Automatic annotation (TrEMBL):
<dbReference type="GO" id="GO:1903457">
    <property type="term" value="P:lactate catabolic process"/>
</dbReference>
<feature type="domain" description="FAD-binding PCMH-type">
    <location>
        <begin position="50"/>
        <end position="279"/>
    </location>
</feature>
<dbReference type="InterPro" id="IPR006094">
    <property type="entry name" value="Oxid_FAD_bind_N"/>
</dbReference>
<dbReference type="InterPro" id="IPR017896">
    <property type="entry name" value="4Fe4S_Fe-S-bd"/>
</dbReference>
<dbReference type="Pfam" id="PF01565">
    <property type="entry name" value="FAD_binding_4"/>
</dbReference>
<dbReference type="InterPro" id="IPR016164">
    <property type="entry name" value="FAD-linked_Oxase-like_C"/>
</dbReference>
<dbReference type="InterPro" id="IPR016169">
    <property type="entry name" value="FAD-bd_PCMH_sub2"/>
</dbReference>
<feature type="domain" description="4Fe-4S ferredoxin-type">
    <location>
        <begin position="631"/>
        <end position="663"/>
    </location>
</feature>
<dbReference type="InterPro" id="IPR016171">
    <property type="entry name" value="Vanillyl_alc_oxidase_C-sub2"/>
</dbReference>
<dbReference type="InterPro" id="IPR016167">
    <property type="entry name" value="FAD-bd_PCMH_sub1"/>
</dbReference>
<dbReference type="Pfam" id="PF02913">
    <property type="entry name" value="FAD-oxidase_C"/>
</dbReference>
<dbReference type="InterPro" id="IPR016166">
    <property type="entry name" value="FAD-bd_PCMH"/>
</dbReference>
<dbReference type="GO" id="GO:0008720">
    <property type="term" value="F:D-lactate dehydrogenase (NAD+) activity"/>
</dbReference>
<keyword id="KW-0560">Oxidoreductase</keyword>
<protein>
    <submittedName>
        <fullName>FAD-binding and (Fe-S)-binding domain-containing protein</fullName>
    </submittedName>
</protein>
<dbReference type="GO" id="GO:0004458">
    <property type="term" value="F:D-lactate dehydrogenase (cytochrome) activity"/>
</dbReference>
<keyword id="KW-0285">Flavoprotein</keyword>
Length: 985
């Protein structure tokens, strides 16, 4: 079997694959079998530079499905089937990519099977995400220690397969150090439990596991001395295959150690039994800043002597980038940096202990000991952090490294291929210095961060992989960096697995041990059907394993996208496959449609992959191919809630799928008829003032069952909101003394009148459907001593943008932007009511108007943060939930609201949730009802139920709560106004 026969650009599926999938289905496979282009394109990339189109993707639902996968592959006629196990899909070197059949356990196999709190062991399915495992364990005061940066989407099966480590490995080691046993199905179809086998039991161990143990013992025993001498002595593992720990000095076998790091080349994992650790009772940080990253790295051997749990570092280039962001002041405060934005390097020195006094004593020892460091390596600043919330903010800066690198150069991106070098910590500074010289000679900038305590350096060169000359440097750079790791006693792969770098293995461990690896592969997978071309081939297969620069790179495909399409859909090309959108954290807004379905097509990465493929087909004038992809792409984009989470800080590449969705829909509907619901949506904002005149009658008609059926059956719309009570709104506006003014009328105001005036910018949704939000905000402005004025209503264009009616949207946006700019220039303060609409002015308007003028419409939290607020007496306790678009595009508003409530003396707790499932039109479309309800139940229901005092910033969110709950959520203005003395009614 030759796994190098790649056909990455072919969407035809072979008869062999179709026959295999048919046989699998007939055998009773319970999961899903996918051959559609969307599923395959989505799985053709990971977080590496490579792209390989699979023939099919299968999603097993249970362990017996994995048995069927192997048994069917062993049936007559299917000998050439190749299988590629996949977990989180975030590998940095193509580990799970291949032209055969992807076996993805992340979608359904997420169960916790057994937990023994007395022993501290837990058995789980391979698709369970590490954070979900720790959420469960936290209830018992325990955790699974290996802490990868992708902790919210890394699966346990993937962590075992890569033998992952991460933060804290100085103390806790690698994943394999916490694996008790691995239950897997071998390529021959046998299920075995691989774990510790005492030497005395090897001869009598029954069944397939015994046969395998005896065969492996016979292979390993003669090479014991050579293995001890040749395998690198590092905190980071060699991976694939762990010969050093698979057979111990006393003759015991630990076959789980052999499976860990084997990257799917030896079998399919059915379950893993893990050893867990007690959660330390107390944790603290010393944030250390250095004048340069060289000084910081040279200090590491001395810092390690203080026995930290972890030392993470960020180089001076990334720190300089952080200090150039709009959040620079916050970064300085969190890290304790004073002075100008000069380059700094930062180390985060973490210590943990169950005894707080002992922890404080250690921190004091560290702090005083730093004074004795030689001046060249002495920190320029030290900040001790004890508060858990502050510690979390520090780690947020560390996690932002990849995103900060992405902002260095819009034409280049931080590329992963020499991403996880590891050398002894005492050699790290010299290694890094030479590495920088290598890349400087090639005029390639880079940024670095990583795990200083164990000498692991995350190196991200900034390259344009769409340029052939830069792709051609991958070989030379890899060879040079590999040579440096050898020189300094390290490994090219120190954390993220080997992947397509297996060609270097023989140089590291020698020919004899590499031949031993091949014999192990041949013993377990003689047909070479499991992830062929990676790590090792069977001994009787003389073809070389895959070369790292002979595998198709996605930059080569992206290079074929024409300049006009690359400009329009450039963010799709910037998606690096890091998989942040695959997180399963219900407290995060990113990405709702993936959280609801578990389907990677319905994620920003999946949509970006399809957009790339579609744009390329168009660029190549492949009309049939573009139309074929367009169908899958349209289906994927239809489940996008346009929440903008992928345009915010949650996505390092900030792909902004909603913007590209609008552009695609504009193209798509040039040849495809729009749904009737678009006719309603496209006229909503302009018709609203006319409908408002007959609102009462219209509400009564709209509530009639035949009308509801008509709207549902013909237009596909349900649960449409009622229009406001117009008479009541006008009465209250008169009572408040609020007038409506045009731009021209406002510009005629004298200067002294402008200063105390606050213009409230109307939007269709709060003005006509949630007038209470508008009226209360006006009353609040009045109560705080300002003169509120309503800017005359006009459409904002939000529905047009969401549905890809960009010609109309640009016309609306151009007129509005011009007027808002005029008012800004005139010195007025403007505040929006609905956060999503207000943020549209900042994001969608500039993105769609080539010469968008500058203007400033504030969010309510931004305006209140600039305003003197009274201290009040408030007895109520509130839960506060933000609109997901606010959290994504204006993350600083959470802190603003917290400070506002604290300053006023209100008892408000901020609850972090994902998307509520409404998202404007989405929740009113019949086709999306199941997903809309699922998201509400998944993300909001627990936060809302049992509380009568809920504050929600979003109009959509409040509408959704009213649909599915008996709670009537308040706006922030309502909650604040209610506790003000002498407030307007």
């Amino acid at each position: 079997m030759d796994g190098s026969a790649f056909i990455p650009d072919q969407d035809a599926i072979s008869d062999l694959t179709r026959g295999y999938l048919d046989a699998l289905a007939k055998a009773g496979f319970k999961g899903e079998l996918a051959t559609d282009l969307g599923a395959r394109v989505t799985q053709s990339t990971d977080n590496s530079i490579y792209q390989i189109m699979p023939q099919a993707v299968i999603y097993p639902r249970c362990a017996s499905d994995l048995d069927l996968v192997m048994h069917t592959a062993n049936a007559p006629g299917f000998g050439d089937i190749c299988l590629y196990a996949r977990g989180g899909g975030t590998s940095t070197n193509g580990q799970s990519l291949g032209p055969g059949i992807i076996v993805d356990t992340s979608r359904f196999m997420r169960a916790i099977l057994e937990f023994d709190p007395d022993k501290g062991t837990i058995r789980v399915e391979p698709g369970l995400v590490r954070d979900k495992l720790n959420d469960f364990l936290a209830q018992s005061g325990r955790f699974f220690a290996p802490h990868v940066s992708t902790t919210n989407r890394a699966t346990i099966g993937g962590m075992v397969s890569n033998d992952s480590s991460g933060k804290g490995s100085l103390v806790y080691g690698k994943t394999s150090d916490h694996v008790v046993s691995v239950e897997c199905v071998l390529p021959g179809g046998e299920t075995v439990e691989l774990g510790h086998v005492p030497a005395a039991e090897i001869a009598t161990l029954p069944g397939p596991a015994g046969e395998l143990a005896r065969a492996l013992d016979a292979l390993l025993a003669p090479h014991e001395q050579d293995i001890r001498a040749r395998f690198p002595d590092l905190k980071r593992g060699f991976t694939g295959y762990n010969l050093k720990d698979a057979r111990q000095a006393n003759g015991d076998l630990n076959l789980a150690k052999l499976m860990a790091g084997s990257e799917g080349t030896l079998g399919l994992i059915k379950s893993v039994t893990l050893r867990t650790e007690p959660i330390p009772q107390h944790t603290a940080l010393a944030v250390l800043t250095f004048a340069s990253h060289e000084a910081g790295l040279r200090a590491v051997p001395e810092l390690v002597k203080f026995e930290p749990h972890a030392i993470e570092f960020i180089d001076d280039k990334i720190m300089a980038a952080a200090l150039r962001t709009p959040f620079a002041d916050d970064v300085r405060k969190v890290l304790g940096i004073d002075g100008p934005s000069q380059p700094y390097a930062a180390h985060f020195f973490e210590v943990s202990n169950d005894d707080k006094a002992a922890l404080d004593a250690k921190l004091a020892l560290v702090s005083s000991g730093l004074d004795a460091f030689p001046p060249a390596i002495r920190p320029t600043g030290v900040r001790l952090v004890h508060d858990p919330a502050e510690i979390a903010r520090v780690w947020e800066i560390r996690r932002a490294c990849q995103g900060l690198l992405a902002g260095f150069d819009k034409n280049k991106r931080a590329v992963a291929f020499i991403e996880d070098c590891a050398v002894p910590p005492e050699n790290m500074a010299d290694f890094v210095a030479e590495l920088e010289d290598v890349l400087a000679a090639k005029k390639i900038p880079l940024g670095m961060y990583g795990h200083a305590d164990v000498g692991c350096v995350h190196i991200r060169p900034l390259m344009n992989m769409n340029a052939q000359d830069e792709r051609q440097q991958i070989r030379a750079i890899s060879d040079a960096v590999f040579a440096l790791t050898q020189k300094y006693g390290g490994l090219l792969w120190g954390e993220h697995g080997k992947g397509l770098r297996g060609e270097y293995s023989e140089t590291v461990i020698g020919r004899d041990l590499y031949q031993l690896m091949r014999r192990i592969k041949g013993l377990i997978d003689p047909a070479n059907r499991m992830n062929p071309g990676k790590i090792a081939r069977p001994i009787d297969d003389e073809a070389p394993i895959l070369s790292l620069d002979a595998v198709p790179m996605r930059g080569a495909f992206d290079q074929e996208v024409t300049a006009d399409l690359a400009t329009e859909f450039g963010n799709a090309l910037r998606c690096d496959g890091n998989g942040a959108c695959f997180n399963q954290d219900e407290t995060q807004p990113f990405c709702p449609s993936y959280k609801a379905t578990g389907d990677r097509k319905q994620s920003p990465k999946g949509r970006a992959s399809l957009l790339r493929a579609w744009a390329r087909a168009r660029a190549l004038h492949d009309t049939a191919g573009a139309n074929r992809i367009a169908g899958d792409l349209h289906a994927s984009l239809e489940t996008c809630l346009a929440c903008k989470a992928c345009a915010g800080a949650g996505c390092p590449a900030r792909v902004d799928i909603p913007e590209m969705k609008s552009q695609f829909l504009e193209w798509f509907h040039q040849s495809t008829r729009r749904p009737l619901s678009d006719l309603v949506v496209g006229r909503l904002e302009s018709l609203a003032p006319k409908l408002d005149l007959v609102g009462g009658a219209l509400n009564a008609i709209q509530a009639l069952p035949p009308v509801k059926s008509l709207m549902s059956g013909v237009f596909g719309l349900v649960d449409l909101p009622a229009l406001r009570n117009r008479r009541d709104t006008l009465r209250r506006l008169r009572y408040l003394g609020v007038v409506t003014r045009t731009v021209e009328q406002l510009c005629a105001y004298p200067a002294d009148l402008r200063e105390g005036t606050v213009i409230v910018v109307q939007d269709c949704f709060t003005t006509f459907y949630d007038a209470e939000a508008l009226l209360t905000q006006l009353a609040l402005i009045r109560a705080l001593g300002f003169s509120p004025v309503l800017l005359n209503y006009r459409p904002g264009g939000k529905p047009h943008h969401v549905r890809g009616m960009l010609a109309q949207f640009r016309k609306i946006a151009e007129a509005n932007a011009r007027d808002l700019s005029t008012l800004t220039d005139a010195g007025f303060t403007m505040v929006g009511v609905d956060g999503a609409t207000t943020l549209m002015y900042r994001h969608e308007y500039p993105a769609n108007l080539p010469d968008c003028p500058d203007f400033n419409v504030l969010l309510l939290s931004e305006w209140l943060s600039r305003t003197d607020l009274p201290k009040v007496t408030a007895s109520d306790t509130y839960r506060f939930i933000q609109h997901c678009t606010e959290r994504s595009l204006a993350p600083e508003t959470a802190d603003q609201w917290l400070r506002i409530f604290q300053q006023m003396g209100m008892d408000v707790s901020i609850v972090k949730t994902g998307c509520c499932g409404m998202s404007g039109l989405f929740g009113h479309e019949l086709a999306h009802q199941e997903m809309s309800r699922t998201l509400y139940e998944q993300n909001w229901q627990d936060a809302v139920d049992g509380s009568t005092k809920v504050i929600a910033t979003g109009y959509s969110c409040r509408s959704q709560v009213k649909r599915f709950s008996s709670v009537a959520p308040l706006t922030p203005a309502q909650a604040i106004l209610a506790v003000l003395p002498n407030r307007p009614a």
